[in-house]
Amino acid sequence: MQSDGENVTGPMPHAGSGKIIAVYRGGTVTEEEFSKYIGFMSLMNQEYMNVEQYSPYQKTVLKPYIGHKVLASRLGEMSDEAKKILDTQVDTFYAYVKQAAEVDTALNKRMEEAGLSDSDIKYFFRLITAVGDAEVNKITDDAVMAIFEETRMDYYIVTLRHILVGTTDMSAGEVLRTEEAALHRIQEVKTKLEAGGDWHVLAKAYSDDPGSSDNGGLYEWQTAGGFITEFKHAVNEQAVGEIGVPVKTPYGYHVIQVEQREEISFEKLTEDHKAAIRQMLASEAMERFMSNELEDLITEIDLSASNEEG
Question: Which ranges does the record mark as transmembrane (predicted)?
Answer without folding.
Answer: none
